[in-house]
Amino acid sequence: MRVLLSTYGSRGDVEPLVGLAVRLRALGADARVCAPPDEEFAELLAGAGVELVPLGKPVRTFMHGATPPSAAELARLRIEMVAEQFDTVAAAAEGCDVLVAAGLAQVAARSVAERLGIRYVYASYHPVSLPSPHHPPAPREGWPPPPEGADNRTLWDLDARGITELFGDALNIRRASLGLPPVDNVRDHVFTGEPWLATDPVLGPWREPADLGVVRTGAWILPDGRPLPERLVAFLEAGAPPVYLGFGSMRAPEGLARVAVEAIRSRGRRAVVSRGWADLAVLDDRDDCLVVGEVNQQALFGRVAAVVHHGGAGTTATAARAGAPQVVVPQMVDQPYWAARVTALGIGVAHDGPTPTAASLSAALGTALSAGTRARARAVADTLRTDGAEVAAKLLLDTATRGGPAPSA
Fold first, then answer.
1. DSSP character string of 200-240
2. Is residue 276 part of a domain?
3. By Cβ atoms counted within 10 A, which residue in 36, 156, 327, 362 is the most buried?
4. Average model confidence (pLDDT) for the chain?
């Protein structure tokens, strides 16, 4: 069996698909991944022995350009992105039995699968992206505020209309050229009535009853066996466990590293600062801070006192599995959801607002570093599953063979 896995986004969008691809290959399937051609993604897939099919332009250049793109530029980029997906994904999917798409940006994937007559699966990495009467849609940057007092169903209807306004014309022009009928609701077309949810059932549960027949697989984890750099190991062994600070691929609030290091020091702790796409750095030369590049978080988070981060799905899950208390400083999209889950589970605290001060971050760290939070984080870690990629891989193999809908795991 041949499977094409496709996404467009940051590392948090790409790495789960690599984890799924590795499990598929272990079960005898041929799996390749369509993803942005960023250097770190190419290295990630090469290290896992998975073929990369470059899709679109590098994400880092787009997300961290000198100035944010204008509305006109964004409109042009959306049209180009849909066209690129039709061309690249269609070529990569030739001869495949299943096409798995992750992320709403994959608006062309289902049309490609229809045209080729192959099975299509949509997967989400967080519950809050899927329509439900139990939660509102995540706020979308640049969209007008919703009507005051609107209920969840109204908010999801508005969300669907907004997505169709953004992508409908570009999608339907290409569908027409392929002899496919037009789509009047792009979001629901992409999601299907049975989307897959690749989250841990404790960390990111799905509430029933719901309108969608969501298939819950568990999170798709790519095991990381890389050793930590010697310099980092020496730092860890030179004193008490430090606090980790990282913002992944996000633009960090101005002065975040300075503010965070001041807060960490106020708690009598050392700091490991992950440079990330925000290029975080420490401005003084004191020996209680170490700046690192991309490292094995699965190994590192088990050796730190707490993890301060932006609230991405991957970082949240990795810290939770390691039993590390968290301080989440959410910025956008699904990050407020993960911050709320960390707080609800008692495994850390959500910072109030996206721009911390030294005082506000120190207060949040006080909660995260408490004995109660540490004990709770360790207890919850023992309840989290690590078999989501295997569950998903077996479901794909089974449903591709039978040709019917996927059962809930």
1. -TTTS---SS-SS--EE---------PPPPHHHHHHHHTSS
2. yes
3. 327
4. 93
Enumerate helices (H) and strands (E) in the chain, giving the number of each. Answer: 15, 13
Distance of CA 90 to the CA centre of its chain: 24
Give burial (CB, 10 Å; 0-12/13-18/19+) of 375. middle
Query: Rounded to an integer, what distance in angstroms lies between the CA atom of residue 199 and that of residue 207?
Result: 13
Q: How many CB atoms lie within 10 A of CB 114?
A: 15
* 77 and 26 inside one domain: yes
298 is in which domain, residue-wise? Answer: 230-381
Which CATH number is 322's domain given?
3.40.50.2000
Name which of 34, 33, 38, 88 is nearest 62 in CA terms. Answer: 38
Dist. CA 91–CA 140, nearest whole Å: 31
pLDDT given for residue 402 in this prediction: 65
In terms of domains, do 258 and 155 share one? no
What letter does residue 182 receive in the DSSP assignment? P
Q: Report residue 403's pLDDT band, with 50, 70 and 90 as the boundaries.
A: low
**What is the value of pTM for the model shown?**
0.94
Domain membership of residue 29 (yes or no) is: yes
| Residue keyed to tokens 């995260």 | 368
Q: Is 283 exposed, middle or buried (0-12, 13-18, 19+ CB in 10 A)?
A: exposed
